[in-house]
Amino acid sequence: MEGKSGKGVGASLLRKEDERHLRGRGEFVGDIQRPGMLEAAFVRSPVAHARIKGIEKPAGFEDRVFTMDDLADVKAIRAVTAIKGFKPSDMWPLARGKVRHVGEPIAVCVAATRAEAEDIAAQVYVDFEELPAVVDMVEARTSPPSLVHEEWGDNVFLETLVDDDFTAVRARAPIKLRRHVRTARQSMAPMEGRGVLCEWNTRLGQLEMYSSAQMPHINRSGLSECLGLDQGAIRVIAPDVGGGFGYKGILLSEEICLAWLSRRLGRPVRWLEDRREQLVASTNCREHDYDITIYAERDGRLIGIDCDATVDSGAYSLYPFSACLEGAQVASILPGPYKMEHFRCHTWSACTNKPPILPYRGVARTGVCFALELMMDAVAREAGMEPYEVRLANLVLPSEMPYDNITKKHFDSGDYPEAVRKAVAAIDLPKWRARQKAGEADGRRIGVGLSVYCEQGAHGTSVYSGWGIPMVPGHEQCFARLSPDGVLELRIGAQSHGQSMETTFAQVANEILGVDPDKVRLIHGDTALTPYSTGTWGSRCAVMSGGAVATAAREIAQRVKKIAGKLMEVAVEDLVLEDGKVKVAGTDKQMTLAEVAHVWYRAPQRLPADVDPGGLEATVGYKPQRDTGTFSYACHAVVVAVDPEIGHTEILDYVIVEDGGTLINPMVVDGQIYGGTAQGIGTALYEEMNYDGEGQPLASTLADYMPPDRPKCPNRASST
Amino acid sequence: MKAAAFDYEKPADVAAAVKLLSGAQGMGKVIAGGQSLGPMLNLRLAQPQLLVDVRGIAEMCAVTETPEALTIGACVTHARIEDGKLPDATRGLLPAVAADIAYRAVRNRGTLGGSLAHADPAADWVNTLALLDAVAILQGPAGRRELKVTEFMHGPFATALAEDELLVAVRIARLSKAARWGYYKFCRKTGEFAEAIGAMLVDPERKVCRAVVGATTSVPHVVADARAIAERFMPDEALKAVEAAGLGDDPYERQMHFAALKRAAARMHGGGS
Fold this sequence. Notes:
The structure holds two protein chains of two kinds.
Chain A: H1 18-21, E1 38-44, E2 50-56, E3 65-67, E4 98-99, E5 105-111, H2 114-122, E6 125-130, H3 137-142, E7 156-162, H4 167-172, E8 175-183, E9 195-201, E10 206-211, H5 216-227, E11 234-237, H6 253-265, E12 269-272, H7 275-281, E13 288-296, E14 302-312, H8 325-333, E15 342-350, H9 365-383, H10 387-394, E16 403-404, E17 410-411, H11 416-427, H12 429-438, E18 445-457, H13 461-464, E19 476-482, E20 488-492, H14 501-513, E21 520-524, H15 541-568, E22 575-578, E23 581-584, E24 590-592, H16 593-602, E25 617-622, E26 630-642, E27 649-659, H17 666-686, E28 718-719
Parallel strand pairs in A: 1-12, 10-11, 14-15, 20-21, 27-28
Antiparallel strand pairs in A: 1-5, 2-4, 2-6, 3-5, 7-15, 8-13, 9-10, 9-12, 13-14, 16-17, 18-26, 19-20, 19-25, 22-23, 23-24, 26-27
Chain B: E1 7-9, H1 14-24, E2 28-31, H2 37-42, E3 50-53, H3 58-61, E4 63-65, E5 69-73, H4 78-82, H5 93-99, H6 104-109, H7 112-118, H8 124-131, E6 135-140, E7 143-148, H9 149-152, E8 153-155, E9 158-159, E10 166-173, E11 180-186, E12 196-203, E13 208-214, E14 221-223, H10 227-230, H11 235-244, H12 251-268
Parallel strand pairs in B: 1-3, 2-3
Antiparallel strand pairs in B: 4-5, 5-10, 6-7, 6-10, 8-9, 11-12, 12-13, 13-14
Helix pairs in contact in B: 11-12
């Protein structure tokens, strides 16, 4: 589907962002310099779990080294939830009393250069009394070697139970399979790590913070709470951001420290996270453990799932997502796109001496999908069926849509079985089955994999309010202004860091206002310039910010038409917006948007007496009629050749069938899917953030932590 | 992280470099391509007070040949070898190995001597030069000395080099026309250091039949009489070599190194993957 201009919704328009990024002219925190700027380096814990008996600043550098004692007026980061039984943690920006994971910041040092700051940091002496490290998430709750937060009495942030009675099911189910499934701890490893630059503006009495962040408004709220400053006294700017992937959806200890330092020292201070800090000191993701039992009929139809799931949440509850989100989400999405009569899920969000976790591309989705789809394959083997046949026997049917599943997820629409049928056809299953039977000349074994899921996006108030975390999404707003020269300025509170919003939202505006995408400027990522927003996370921006842009564009369209109608002496209903012009339908009468805007701003004497004094600027909001979220769905099919002698896996073919609804820009959607698939290949075959028994990370550089590279990804995936 | 402060010198000849190293009293470090030392400096795993850049020393960039041998200056890059800029004294072994080291960007700067002196057990040259029974030419304040590469490397990241000694060049005996070789390495990802290396060389005219179990936990394990592995691949003998290399206990290491030997043999005989 393509809009009337060929540049609107449905067009694979080249990205506006690429002009600067392909020429290396983007501006990231690391590109920003300020006169008199200091660089910061953090003293970080070399041990996983210890009491701090003392910290000695190096002689002569007492005014360059700061500890939590110096930041005495700063509050701890505390991300609580409304769920009963949740145990909050105090995460001090610099360690106080104890360190709870390797890499936890203990002191911050400043100097003219990062190298000199590191020289000072190397001389800070910390006296540790080491404690047994809590490393394994299941052991953490069943037989803990020590307590991460002693006042809790255990190592569990939150325990949840979705209960059901399986007594009768156990007695009658012809197929009963139990498996233990684990997913590795990972790092999101964005190309750009974090970076923070803080400067205190004495004229405005305002902290200006540049931060590589996904949710600048939320960072501002969090900073305000920890620093005791009015929110208006803080401006957060997320400039170009080199990948988020959930890793940058957080209020950082480092942000608080630098904000405090810049005010205290009266000088700009910058910290750029290096790759080692990114891998070992900051957040990780996705470490799950499933003890899962599946019950099915002889014909492959599911009866129910009974699961004990543990999530390794690491040492602290992070702001704003909290330590409960991942675990609670496991219980809510484990049934996947399938129908079943019984579901029981007991979850533990375990606290360990490892970095805290954040959601990475689908909150808990990857682990859940892996566990569930392994079980579907197990059922297929037990029932003697093709794996796709078992999926088809259990997927929600299009005739049943919209469908409320067993955990009350409201699947809005779709033809899930058709996605499976298309994927199986595209991968040519019979061809591979024949080849498997014949065997490979080189001794390798061929495997065919299948995975189906549906995925919630644009979670609304009703979804998040029950969790009661520090951030509950509601409306999303857009400020739109048609400038005197006819250029449309859009301001949104979300931040675009690879989502291509500068392009896609220009297409949305084009679809409604007819303004050329080249004449649309999207301003985002700056709390001083944009409406408040919970930011970019949870597959929400196309729906929520895109919805706000569309609503704002419609509002501006109405106002333009009212002015143009008076000027051309025609009824508003007779006007259409096309090609940057207001045209009178069925005539050659027309005005450009620039002419209309010129009259409003520069020649008001020509305006009608009853014109809307709101003019050509408006801030309008958007909230979907039903806020339970969108559900896109997909089926992936893959063929691999495994070398049994050395374990090497080669991907021979990969098919993706995905229904993303109306695509604003199909090229951008394909890019998102390819990127996600590459990350999935990394999850399946390469990436693992291992820890030893003392809680020491075993992958502290990219020589040890292996995201998939170009040669490991298929040359071309067919996407439908 | 950023490197700790250091001084930098770029001497024009070997004697000057040796003098600088002597003066540094153990706090000097030689840098050529910097492909391993660079990251080590930035991670502060190495904190020398003086870096001696040897890339300006003509002798160390030179390649000379005689009917019997090829002498390669320590500063010759992997890329020069890959591109066939050196006389081929090894029946194509050196260019083939060079072409598979890390990425081209690394090969443009990384050097043969730097790799050998760094002595990472998983590095290609460490193992290839052990297979070829090459000779390392060293120079210190007391003059030159020569050591077999197998004696040059003492262990992981440990060599016979004294603090004020320089690896100047490597000499490789010319292979005969009848010589055949096989080399196999397994990396989880393109450009990574190898998990396992298997290498073999049969040169009947020179009465050479050697095999190397490479990417061990220490020095390359050389099988000087490898007829039972190289001429005809006997699995039991290959497993014995893997065990003798100290890799018999861990099932993964044992299997990977066994497979590397098996595939090196298959490649030498013109087949396999």
